[in-house]
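Translate structure to sequence.
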């Protein structure tokens, strides 16, 4: 294999994780409609940040982005987003569970709702470093709990030393006074 072909292969391998994003057609060929169990549709699928959900639906339906309470209770009044264009693409941008329902009366209660757990992308770092946290200083020694009890008696020795120097100094002064 020539070096150009090898380089091209490496480039291809390096580029694959970055462009690997999936568009999921909600309900597959059935689309977003009544009579589909979207809990079953979700089962076995892995959704990641960067993937896209595509809702394809008729005029009697629409898509509301709701929270878990809205999903559980089929309440669309607190929806953060509403779509009714018949072909709605939702980019999965954040890790966590996203909840959708059809706000048409009775449809959510009939099962037309969707909860999707969005996982981080495999290539993304596990946790970005926080700018406020400082790394541990290598100059700081670990605390030693044994130091206080094992220390010898430096104050006593130091005072003895001071007394010795004092005595020597007094002796020199006295001798100096005697000699002169
Ligand atoms: Cu509907």
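Result:
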């Amino acid at each position: 294999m020539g070096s150009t072909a090898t380089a091209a292969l490496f480039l291809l391998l390096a580029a694959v994780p970055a462009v690997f994003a999936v568009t999921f057609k909600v309900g597959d060929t059935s689309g977003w409609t009544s009579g589909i169990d979207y809990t079953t549709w979700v089962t076995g699928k892995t959704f990641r940040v960067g993937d896209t959900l595509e809702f394809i639906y008729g005029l009697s339906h629409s898509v509301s982005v709701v929270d878990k309470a809205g999903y559980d209770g089929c309440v669309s009044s607190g929806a953060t987003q509403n779509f009714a264009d018949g072909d709605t693409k939702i980019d999965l941008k954040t890790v966590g569970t996203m909840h959708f329902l059809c706000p048409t009366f009775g449809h959510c209660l009939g099962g037309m709702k969707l909860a999707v757990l969005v996982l981080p992308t495999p290539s993304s770092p596990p946790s970005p470093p926080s700018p406020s946290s400082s790394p541990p200083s290598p100059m700081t020694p670990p605390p030693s709990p044994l130091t206080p009890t094992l220390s010898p008696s430096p104050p006593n020795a130091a005072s003895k030393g001071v007394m010795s120097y004092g005595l020597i100094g007094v002796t020199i002064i006295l001798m100096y006074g005697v000699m002169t």
